């Protein structure tokens, strides 16, 4: 079948022969090309305009004689299509409506616009107390101008503060959230003057190639766009006497009670080195556990975890959720030595230990895949100190160390 050329009709009409499509229906398997155009390039319009006659022989490449194209039915406006911007007269009517103390819907009806359009314009330009038609029009014109000066380029002192925190390993979201958290007690104008994470990303990606490295900034992902990731499914290990996550108390799931941990292994290059990681679900506090010489057999892992948990207040170490890795085969010995109940997630269900999976991703900043993992506990503790002092959005931009300290203080006070 001949191809449809640009500017021609994307709807096949039946020619009366076998295999022809009914008039006005698209051929099965063929896309409908829009906008539809007549033979002379004029758009085929509905309503009162009428049809456009094809006067060129062979205009329909699939055969048949040139014919008059039927006009499409006129479609009423649904009101969902975006209209032109507010005019000076519209804003003057809005200002008058505010002076009359009229409702937003009443003002919107006067100018024939949506109430949400009026509401946003009032909010964007000072609210009802400070809205002025002239100022609103001028500000709207300024905001539409391109190119726009980015906030970080316009304010060197803010840029220096943001860059300093990015160099310290903060993500753009953590930088923006921490600024709002630190200024939460100040006036709203000062808080609103801080930068958003979208503005930080926009500034980062607008930098010339190589400028990030010269600034000493490295995004955690190490790339500029997402990539789909897949993982081959392998059967989970068979752990004797394991307790499923289904039997875990409900209070663990909703994080209402502290002292419930998640754990996993982080494997080094070629599987020759590894470390265990523990993360408290409520505070996101991280405890990396060194494994001697990178051994991750069941006995070595259980002993290392026992040494890490010993000495913690009993109220802050109640349960541990692990995947079905063979390194946790000695879970009974661990529970006997620490009185900590161990629960196992379902195979291939990392979301059941989402806190730990996220933390392991943060640790990969320090131990990228394909590199050796040290068994020096002192070094691992230094890494954990940095992670535990990063603000987290899930914690209201408090740090895990701050939240864990509060939990520890309350736990000690409750035992006095």
Tell me what the structure shows.
With 416 residues, the chain is of the alpha/beta class. The protein folds into four domains: 1-74, no CATH class; 88-144; 151-215, no CATH class; 245-415, Nucleotidyltransferase, domain 5 (2-Layer Sandwich), CATH 3.30.420. Helix content is 37%, strand content 7%. The protein is built from 17 helices and five strands. Strands 3-2-1-4-5 form a five-stranded mixed β-sheet, sandwiched between helices. A hairpin with a 6-residue loop joins strand 1 (260-267) and strand 2. Helix 1 runs antiparallel to helix 2 (104-111) and helix 8 (172-182) packs across helix 10. The longest helix has 16 residues, at 400-415. The chain is elongated. It starts with 87 loop residues before the first helix and ends with a helix. The model is unreliable at 1-81 (pLDDT under 50).
Question: Layout of SSEs?
Answer:
Blueprint: H1 88-99, H2 104-111, H3 115-124, H4 127-130, H5 133-144, H6 151-154, H7 156-167, H8 172-182, H9 188-192, H10 197-206, H11 211-215, H12 250-253, E1 260-267, E2 274-280, E3 286-290, H13 298-309, E4 319-322, H14 331-338, E5 341-344, H15 354-363, H16 377-388, H17 400-415
Parallel strand pairs: 1-4, 4-5
Antiparallel strand pairs: 1-2, 2-3
Tags for this model:
single chain; 416 residues; alpha/beta; 4 domains; five-stranded mixed sheet; 5 strands; elongated; disordered N terminus
Given the C-alpha coordinates, what overall shape results? elongated
- Which bin fits the share of residues in helices? 25-40%
CATH class of the largest domain: Alpha Beta
Please identify the structural class as seen in this structure.
Answer: alpha/beta
Nearest-integer average pLDDT: 77
For the largest beta sheet, what order do the strands appear in spatially? 3-2-1-4-5
Query: Over the alpha carbons, how many angstroms does the gyration radius reach?
Result: 32 Å
The total domain count is: 4
CATH superfamily of the largest domain: Ribonuclease H-like superfamily/Ribonuclease H
| Strand residue percentage | 5-15%
**Poorly predicted tracts of residues:** 1-81
**Known CATH architecture of the largest domain:** 2-Layer Sandwich
Tally of extended strands?
5
- The number of distinct helices, counting runs of at least 4 residues, comes to 17
CATH topology-level fold name of the largest domain: Nucleotidyltransferase, domain 5
What are the secondary-structure elements, in order, as H or E? HHHHHHHHHHHHEEEHEHEHHH
Between the first and last Cα atoms, what is the distance in angstroms? 87 Å
Major β-sheet, in short?
A: 5 strands, mixed
């Amino acid at each position: 079948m001949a191809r449809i050329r640009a500017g021609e009709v994307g709807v096949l009409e039946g020619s009366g022969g076998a295999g022809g499509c009914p008039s006005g229906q698209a051929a099965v398997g063929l896309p409908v090309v829009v906008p539809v155009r007549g033979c002379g390039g004029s758009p085929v319009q509905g309503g009162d305009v009428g049809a456009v006659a094809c006067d060129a022989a062979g205009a329909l490449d699939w055969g048949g004689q040139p014919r008059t194209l039927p006009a499409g039915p006129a479609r009423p406006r649904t009101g969902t299509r975006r209209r032109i911007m507010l005019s000076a007269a519209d804003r003057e009517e809005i200002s008058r409506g505010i002076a009359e103390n009229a409702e937003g819907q009443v003002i919107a009806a006067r100018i024939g616009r949506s109430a949400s359009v009026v509401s946003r314009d009032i909010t964007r330009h000072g609210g009802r107390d400070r809205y002025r038609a002239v100022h609103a029009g001028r500000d709207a014109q300024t905001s539409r101008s391109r190119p726009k000066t980015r906030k970080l380029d316009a304010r060197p002192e803010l840029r220096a503060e943001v860059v300093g925190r990015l160099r310290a390993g903060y993500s753009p979201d953590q930088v923006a959230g921490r600024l709002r958290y630190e200024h939460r007690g100040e006036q709203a104008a000062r808080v609103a003057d801080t930068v958003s994470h979208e503005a930080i990303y926009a500034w980062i990606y607008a930098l010339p190639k190589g400028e990030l490295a010269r600034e000493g900034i490295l995004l955690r992902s190490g790339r500029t766009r997402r990539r789909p990731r897949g993982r081959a499914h392998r059967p989970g290990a068979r752990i004797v006497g394991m307790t499923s996550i289904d039997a875990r108390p409900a209070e663990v799931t909703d994080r209402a009670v502290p002292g419930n941990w998640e754990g996993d292994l982080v494997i080094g290059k070629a599987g020759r080195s590894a470390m265990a990681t523990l993360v408290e679900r409520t505070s996101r506090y991280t405890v990396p556990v060194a494994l001697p010489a990178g051994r991750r057999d069941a006995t070595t892992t259980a002993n290392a975890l026992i040494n890490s948990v010993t000495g913690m207040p009993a109220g802050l170490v109640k349960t541990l959720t692990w995947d079905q890795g063979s390194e946790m085969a000695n879970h009974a010995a661990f529970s006997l030595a620490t009185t900590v109940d161990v629960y196992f997630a379902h195979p291939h269900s990392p979301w059941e230990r989402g806190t730990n999976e996220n933390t392991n991703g943060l640790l990969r900043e320090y131990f990228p895949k394909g590199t050796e993992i040290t068994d020096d506990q002192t070094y691992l503790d230094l890494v954990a100190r940095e992670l535990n002092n990063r603000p987290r959005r899930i914690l209201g931009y408090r740090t895990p160390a701050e939240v864990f300290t509060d939990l520890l203080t309350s736990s000690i006070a409750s035992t006095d």
